[in-house]
Amino acid sequence: MKADLKISAADIIKITGGLLLTGTPDTLIETVTTDSRELNVNNLFIPIKGEKFDGHDFLEELIVSRRISCALTEDASLKEIAEKKGVTLIKCTDTLEALGKIGKVHRDSLSPLVVGITGTNGKTTTKELIHAVLSSKYKTHKNIKNYNNEIGVPFSLMEMKKEHEAAVIEMGMNHIGEIERLSMMVQPDIGIITNIGAGHLEFLESVEGVAYAKTEILKGMKKGSTLIVNRDTECFSIVFSLCEEMGMKMVTFGLNSDAHIFPESYKPGVESMEIVYKNTLITVPLYGRHNAYNVMAAIALAEITGISPDKVASALAGFESIGGRSEIINKGYYLINDTYNSNPLSSLFAVDSMCEVFPDNRKIAVLSDMKELGESSALYHVKIGEIVASRNFDMILLFGDMASFYEKGALQMGFPADKIITFEKKEDIADFLKADLKSGDVVLVKGSRSMQMEDVVNRLEN
């Protein structure tokens, strides 16, 4: 990742509390990067220690080739080489923490309306919807793709310019404390929690743990700020209590009158959904009940920022869905590509949306492992197997280490054993479907990112 940012080495030293090892404080920096392949002019290279790579391993080559003018480092081992090559080297305790500090200081130098988004599911789609809505009134910035972690968010903040009147920043996590650190960088004027469900339980242990982790977004918000929350989410009472305790305003959204912001009517469809809000028809080219919630979050934000339903309708009419997230592919039969990620809540949404939109069609579920569920993994795979079996699906095709648990759940609900097939290879799933599918059939393909179930979709498409 990289960002254009004009700053001096002296500023970096002040921001990070670093120690100048070589070079001069007046070294000019115009590009900040953590990727040795993404360099520009007058680069500050920040080596980050990751699970697979350590950016420090690339630092010597960058110094020797003089492809960078400045670098942060956690040790002084390259001091002599940097001095010889005329590269400014700054030692700091933690380069990841330093990156976050740089992003925060840049954010502090600007004053746009900042919306922060977190939640178990729907963060990226909601971010894109809200960006579209805010752009009808403000020049609005957003983090690109789903750069929502402790590396991506600082870069998203550094990309903010003086001309931006608003910004929408997505924040993801899988450990306690991450959202707090991100929120302290972002300092949202308005926070949004899309939903709370079983996700990252390997690290968070329970859905209640997820709720406490997501509500860390409040830590970077000023007292009296507004938190927009899904009224139908699990652990709503935890969010409500913490919001009240910290002196925040709460606005809820949902699909029924329990919420502050809800539609007068909602009609799902294959290619789009229709929501009527304040007598205004808002048609959005998105599929599924989960996306109806995402749209309602955007409508709630519009309500708070004074954007009329008419403008919302206009802003969302041409909305483009993000690949791999409930993407409908019509090939005579319907292929639902929901392969970007998977957890119990998103799987429930995917299954129920199929039944809502395609009540009379032949339905096939292609399911693979849901990752990071820890000791609860087997239990949740059994539960999803039970849910699929109870929703009148016609066939269940399985792949992965957790296939037997999906099967166990389905069989417990009386699903026919001969309609459950486990495959050793993903290409065999696609080949089986090619021979079996008929016009009007609906196929859901779902699995966690690491399972790469888009391979099944691509083989069917091609």
| Main sheet makeup | 6 strands, mixed
Strand content bin: 15-25%
Shape: globular
CATH topology of the largest domain: UDP-N-acetylmuramoyl-L-alanine:D-glutamate ligase
CATH class bucket of the largest domain? Alpha Beta
How many extended strands? 21
Structural class, from secondary structure content? alpha/beta
The CATH architecture of the largest domain can be given as: 3-Layer(aba) Sandwich
Would you write up a description of this structure?
The protein is of the alpha/beta class. It has three domains: 2-94, MurE/MurF, N-terminal domain (Udp-n-acetylmuramoylalanyl-d-glutamate--2,6- Diaminopimelate Ligase, Chain: A, domain 1, 3-Layer(aba) Sandwich), CATH 3.40.1390; 110-316, Mur-like, catalytic domain (UDP-N-acetylmuramoyl-L-alanine:D-glutamate ligase, 3-Layer(aba) Sandwich); 327-461, Alpha-Beta Complex (Protein-Tyrosine Phosphatase, Chain A). Helix content is 36%, strand content 21%. The chain contains 17 helices and 21 strands. The protein has helices at residues 9-16, 59-64, 79-85, 95-108, 123-134, 152-158, 178-186, 201-204, 207-214, 236-245, 289-305, 309-316, 344-357, 377-390, 403-412, 426-436, 454-461; strands at 2-8, 19-22, 28-33, 43-45, 70-73, 88-91, 113-118, 140-142, 166-170, 190-193, 226-230, 249-253, 265-267, 273-277, 280-284, 327-330, 334-338, 363-367, 395-399, 420-423, 442-446. A six-stranded mixed β-sheet has the order 1-3-4-5-6-2. The longest helix has 17 residues, at 289-305. It starts with a strand and ends with a helix.
